[in-house]
Write a structure and sequence with these properties.
nine-stranded mixed beta sheet, 1 helix, about 5% helix, rod-shaped, mainly beta, 18 strands
């Protein structure tokens, strides 16, 4: 009675067995399929009309024709017939159609993390650092380059709603020192801090008008001078091409 190896299911030559070459060649044939496993396609369903000796397919859940009932197996055309092998958990195969390396989990062929598609929807990426649930991308380096691909380049920071924040935060030893962006509304703001706890607004550009508020100093209003300005308000007179500042009593030309 023929016995088989526990992992690759290779047939052993029995003591005093006649025609030992048959068993030996059968084992070599299986090894020729399994070692450096390469398949024409994953999740294959329909047998090819003109297979070539040595070609293999990783069968899907509902194979048809001569593959019927062989779901999940490796079907190889060998010796002008079909040799079907049941893969074991951890087996790796390269798919020619998919250009991807996959691993048999015991129920399906899963990505091995080397294909382009395997880099989508990652839970986190740490480059010389550790990512977490908040900092899904973490980079520790002397510099980070975002380069063009032949023309221009944009870095986009998108928020869900106006009341959310989309900003750049500058820190010293993980303590905030400066922040600029859209903080709680759609006006562009710049604020600074000496300790990371107390923040001082420095500049705000209004999304609706383009007016710029220089906090603790002045307010820049484009176009027409406001009727009841606050002291320190600055505006640019388009007609006279003059920058004026209100001193609390009268407008004074700055240049």
């Amino acid at each position: 009675m023929t016995t088989f190896s526990p992992r690759l299911d290779l047939p052993f030559i029995e003591a005093a067995q006649a025609q030992k070459h048959v068993t030996h060649n059968a084992a070599l044939e299986r090894l020729d399929v399994i070692v450096q496993l390469c398949v024409q396609q994953f999740n294959a369903k329909t047998p090819p009309a003109s297979p070539v000796n040595g070609q293999s397919w990783a069968l899907g859940t509902t194979p048809t024709g001569v593959w019927a009932g062989r779901a999940g197996q490796i079907a190889t055309f060998a010796g002008d017939g079909w040799l079907c092998v049941i893969p074991g958990p951890g087996w790796r195969a390269w798919g020619l159609a998919e250009s991807a390396l996959r691993i048999w989990t015991g129920t399906a062929w899963a990505g091995a993390g080397l294909g382009a598609g395997d880099l989508n929807n990652l839970p986190g990426v740490g480059i010389n650092a550790t990512s977490d649930s908040t900092n899904r991308l973490s980079v520790a380096a002397e510099a980070t380059l975002f380069n063009h691909a032949g023309r221009g380049h944009q870095i986009k920071i998108n928020k869900s709603a106006a009341g959310d924040t989309a900003s750049l935060l500058y820190q010293t030893n993980y303590g905030g020192r400066a922040e600029m962006g859209l903080a709680g509304n759609d006006d562009f703001a710049l604020k600074v801090s000496a300790d990371g706890g107390t923040w001082n607004a420095a500049l705000t550009a209004q999304a609706a008008t383009g007016g710029v508020t220089l906090h603790h100093l002045a307010t820049l209003v484009p176009g027409t001078a406001p009727a009841a300005p606050a002291r320190g308000t600055v505006y640019y007179d388009d007609a006279g091409e003059v920058l004026r500042c209100f001193d609390g009593a009268v407008w004074r030309d700055l240049f």
